[in-house]
Amino acid sequence: MNKEQGVKDCNALCVMRYGVKEKPLHPLFLFTALCTLITLLFSIPLDAADKAEIKNIRSWSSQGYTRVIIDLSQPVEFTKKRLSSPDRLYFDLKNSKIPREIQNNLPVGDGILKSVRAGQFDPDTVRIVLDLETMDDFNAYILDDPAKLVIDVNAKKPEKLVVTRRVVVLDPGHGGHDPGAVGKKGLQEKDVVLNVALKIKEILSKEPNIEVVLTRDRDVFIRLEERSLIALQKEADLFVSIHANASPNRGARGIETYLQNWTNEEEAIRVAARENYVSLKRMKEKMAQYKSDDLGKILSDLNRDYKRDESVALANYIQSSLYSNVARVHAKTVNLGVKQAMFFVLMGASMPPSILAEVSFVSNPEEERLLASDSYRGVIAKSIASGIKTYFSSSAPVQKVAVVKKGDRGNWDDLPRSADVHAKPSRASFAGR
Ligand SMILES: [Zn+2]
Question: Is this structure's pTM higher than 0.70?
Answer without folding.
Answer: no
